[in-house]
Design goal:
The protein is an alpha/beta fold. Helix content is 31%, strand content 21%. A six-stranded mixed sheet has the order 2-3-1-4-8-5. The protein has a two-stranded antiparallel ribbon with strand order 6-7. Strand 2 and strand 3 form a beta hairpin. Helix 2 crosses helix 4. Bound molecules: pyroglutamic acid. Pyroglutamic acid binds next to strand 4 and helix 4.
Length: 203
């Protein structure tokens, strides 16, 4: 049986007009082996991001979900271990929302762990010569919101779906000075490697 992985990126936010997590989607194939790869963009808005994710889950019925976001300042590609039940935005999101110390879901646990195979993902990315390591915090902005909210929704409604998050560095192409970055093509290679590692665990 063939499997399906949903990959999501985010629109630009804050002062940026470019988000490598969106641009990289264009570099991904439509299938890896027998696994279909479906790509979608999420708004950087707390409620709308998850509404869009829930619609995508119901439409696409994926077996796994890899959400991507940019983490400016990081020099490695970083699968995230833990999603926390907190919205605490350091800047307003694209809808003008800036919650402080709010729970994402009142009836949810404090945290979820990723259910993606992060060790295999890191190994696969490093095997292609690209820096990768495990991150212990996805922050408390929209990326963590989507990571947490997707796990919450899947555990309640589709417990077989494996979901998780991976932050990527800035792309060289966006021209940010004095910050680490990778060529967008390298980010694309890293995401393809991560997807292959996820696909391998689905069969
Ligand atoms: N990065 C932000 C939100 C969207 C994105 O690409 C974050 O790390 O929360």
């Amino acid at each position: 049986m063939s499997m399906k992985i949903l990959v999501t990126g985010f629109e630009p936010f804050g002062k940026e007009t470019y988000n490598p997590s969106l641009e990289v989607l264009n570099l991904l194939p439509d299938e890896i082996g027998d696994t279909a790869i479906v790509k979608a963009v999420l708004p950087v808005v707390r409620y709308e991001s998850l509404e869009r994710m829930q619609r995508l889950i119901e439409q696409e019925k994926p077996d796994a979900i890899l959400s991507l976001g940019v983490a400016g300042g990081r020099s490695a590609v970083t699968p995230e271990r833990t999603a926390v039940n907190i919205d605490d935005f350091r800047i307003p999101d694209n809808g003008g929302f800036q919650p402080v110390d709010e729970r994402i879901f009142a009836d949810g646990p404090d945290a979820y762990f990723t259910v993606l195979p992060y060790r295999q993902m890191i190994r696969a990315i490093k095997d292609r010569g690209i820096a990768a390591s495990l991150s212990e915090s996805a922050g408390t902005f929209v990326c963590n919101h989507v990571f947490y909210g997707t796990r919450y929704y899947c555990e309640k409604n589709h417990p077989h779906i494996r979901s998780g998050f991976m932050h990527i560095p800035y792309a060289q192409e966006q021209g940010i000075k004095d910050s680490p970055s990778l060529a967008l093509s390298e980010i694309g290679e890293a995401v393809r490697a991560a997807l292959s590692a996820i696909a391998d665990t689905l069969y």
